[in-house]
Structure formats: C-alpha cells, structure tokens
Design a protein that fits this description.
Length: 157
Amino acid sequence: MPRSIGKAPSQRQLRVGEEIRHALAEVFERGDIHEPALAGLALTVSEVRVSPDLRAATAFVMRLGGGDMNEVLAGLRRAKPFLRHCIAARLTTRYTPDLRFEPDESFDEAGHIAALLQDPVVRRDLEGTPAATGDEEQDSDPDDDRNDDPDTERKGS
C-alpha cells in the first residue's frame, strides 16, 4: 500500500498540477487540438491532481454549456500525446506526467447541494422555525417522562 494515501498533496504536487492546468487551458483556449470530437468545443480544466512521484496527472475537465462528456473524454484520450508534448514544453520537471482525463462533477455536486438547501424542510431546519404544515404540536412527545415545570419537585428524589 502506498504511503501517501490519506496525505495532503505536497507543495510541489500542487505547483506542478497548477502548471499543467494552465498549460492545458491555454491549449484549449487557442484551439490547437486537431481532434474532430473537440473541434469548436469550449472546455475548462478545474483541477489537476498529480501523483506523489509526479509521473501521473489526472485532469478534471468540463464542457462549458453541458453536453455529453463521453465523446469529449474519448477525444481527449486520442489527443493525449499532443497534449503531453505541449505540457512538456512548459514544465521544468525531469519527466512529463502521463495524462488522465476525468469528468469534473464538482459543479453538479454543488448544484445538488444548492437544491437541497432550497428544500423547504431543510430550510426550516437551518432557520430553526416550525414547519408550516399545521402540526405545531410536532415537538411534543407523549412518551416524554420529564417534568418541564421547575416549580414542582419530582417524587422519589
């Protein structure tokens, strides 16, 4: 088992990941890729994670405007040698990392969380107000044996 599982990425991994992200974004912006599946598409690279030995990098990409990511990922995998060459020209590392492409689902996850926070039940819980369903006595529990009146003493104490 690798020692780095569970560890935060090193400063060098973060720096190399950012350099790769900027290089890929520049290539996508210029439209230098001659891959039919990627022609005319606007892509964004949200994050690049680099392995501790700097030999593998996973780029999280998203198609702006939505759409099918399977076709985009297949095109990126076919264009990988060209993209790796572009990155090698900008990096100052001994080895150019092998590129992997994954769909970025963080925007979808953020949208899901935002939708959950807009749900009336969750909103009620966050604001601490009672529900508007007409069940005002919802908090009272008939099986609750506690004596809420501080003026009366409990028997047997």
